[in-house]
Amino acid sequence: MDWNKAATILISAFIILNIFLFSSSYNNVFSENFNVNADEQFMGNLENVLKEKGITINCKLPEETYLLPILSTEYEIVDVNEKLLSRFLGPGIEPVQDVTRYSNENGEILEILDGKKLHYTVREKIEGQPNEEGAAEKISTFDSDKAIDMEGYSETYRRVKDGQLLVAYSKNYNNFSVDNSYIHFYFDAEGIYKFEMQNIVYVKETAERIRPFSAAEALPRLLSFNDMESKEITDVKMTYYSVEDENWKVISGINSYPVWKVIFSDGTQKHLSIKNTYDID
Question: Which of 59, 210, 219, 276 yields a CA-CA distance of 20 to 30 A from 134?
Answer without folding.
Answer: 59
